[in-house]
Design brief:
Layout: H1 2-5, H2 12-30, H3 33-40, H4 47-65, H5 73-95, H6 97-105, H7 107-111, H8 120-124, H9 130-163, H10 167-196, H11 205-237, H12 244-247
Amino acid sequence: MNLLVSKRSWLLAPAVFILAVCALAATWAAMEPQALRAAFDADGRSFFETLTLPFYALIVPLVWLCCPFAGSARRKALLCLGVSCVAAMAVVKELDLHVAAMNALYPDIVANFKGTPFKMRFLKGSGIPIGAKALALAYFALFFGVFAAMLAYFFARLVKGFLRLHPVAWTMCFFGGSGVMVQVFDRLPAWYRHANGLAKSDLADSFTAFCTAFEEGGEILIAAFALLAILQAHAIYVRDSPPPEFAEL
């Protein structure tokens, strides 16, 4: 428990991140590109993608069993509900359940729409049924909307906590950093192709495998940091008298 709440426990998140990045780089260097892509990305059916799901699913029971929030019972319940909603939607995204639901309910609309329907241009498009737009909007609201609301609520405390070496703030910053890493490596091959006028087949296998490793690895890091932040906050605020250096936040 001291590892979670000691004065140096803010170092835990960067240490985990550095070790994970080194492990991903070593895995990429050791595996053939085709084997790496098969292990990390196979349209949701790879070993690594399957391994990621329990990490996100575990967030839901953990946030209720080890409540990381202080305050009234109502405040705790609302915040735990928000975390549970985002975690559940992360599982939905990983399994593409939202895409499956849209395909099942509006197959003709999806077939005639170029790209995924879960984009703003789908919501703004003409000739699309209100129900299909409502489904896409519900996905955005329950996932990104709830997450954005919670981020806005805690943003000032996260900034103060980061400057004061609060362990939960540091863990959540690396949570966010892992999310940025996922987006960067998800888009990097396309950015490189468009910048150089290349076809998808022109990209080096080792480069695309590298991006795949860090994209999928970043997704499991997001869940790992969320779990760590819950345990750290619970260890601090479950006490009647939290450590004075952490109590204000």
